[in-house]
Amino acid sequence: MTIALYHNPRCSKSRETLNLLTEKGIQPNIILYLDHSFSLAELQALFQKLALTSPREMMRKKDDLYRTLQLDNPELTNDDLFQAIMAHSALLERPIVVNGNKAKIGRPPESVLSIL
């Protein structure tokens, strides 16, 4: 079983999620998403695995960058939002754990246990 963790070591929730996985004996494939170049297909697959209704649910909506880019504009399409994440990976909510065809945002960290 390969588990992936979209991780930011500077984020306390991301570190807590990594510690939780490690305590469960899981050594995830760590993806430092701030250094990662996402493709549209990759973001669409992640969105599908998260089973969300809008890409905004996987974005850091309280982030200054989100407001600066006016991503709350209701006329933006899902592809517009994915393009914003591709251009600015810091917009992606963290941490995200992926297990096969399921994914979960680790807020709170314990929520990822439901897909293990």
TrEMBL record:
Domain of life according to the entry: Bacteria
UniProt KW keywords: Oxidoreductase
One Gene Ontology term of the molecular function aspect: arsenate reductase (glutaredoxin) activity
Keyword Cytoplasm: no
Transmembrane annotation, as ranges: none
Classification via Pfam families: ArsC
E.C. no: 1.20.4.1
Catalytic function, reaction form: [glutaredoxin]-dithiol + arsenate + glutathione + H(+) = glutathionyl-S-S-[glutaredoxin] + arsenite + H2O
NCBIfam families: arsC (TIGR00014)
Protein family per UniProt: Belongs to the ArsC family.
Name of this chain's protein: Arsenate reductase
Higher taxonomy: Bacteria, Pseudomonadati, Pseudomonadota, Gammaproteobacteria, Pasteurellales
Gene from which the chain derives: arsC
